[in-house]
Amino acid sequence: MDSAPICCAWCFEHTLVTSEVVLAELRDLLSRKGRLPAQQIEAIETFLREHPVAPIPVQPLELGLVDGDDEWVVASAVLAQAGMFVTGDQGVLACSKPPLPLVNPRGCWAVPPMARW
Prior knowledge:
By secondary structure, the chain is mostly helical. The chain has a domain at 4-82. It is built from 6 helices and 4 strands, in the order H-E-H-H-E-H-E-H-E-H. The chain has helices at residues 4-13, 20-32, 38-48, 68-79, 90-93, 105-110; strands at residues 18-19, 53-54, 85-86, 102-103. Helix 5 (90-93) links the parallel strand 3 and strand 4. The longest helix has 13 residues, at 20-32.
């Protein structure tokens, strides 16, 4: 079965939102761990900036996450008024009192269009 129609339908039903916090972390990871050339990193960032980008929050959330940097990332999603937070980070997914629905990438595909949170 061709997944392209499913992917296209998902893209029309949801909005990709990122943040300055995520973009900074992404640039660092892609260059340091991914060892991607600067031109490829720039192309990825340019694509992501074609979608809404949340500013850096005034303060992080206090959710008790293991990685303090994740507090800033989740705060960015809240600031952007995201309907859900998609992550593969088990530390974030384990949050006991998330300020918005947390789903892993596979779970995101199961979210009905225009879901009401």
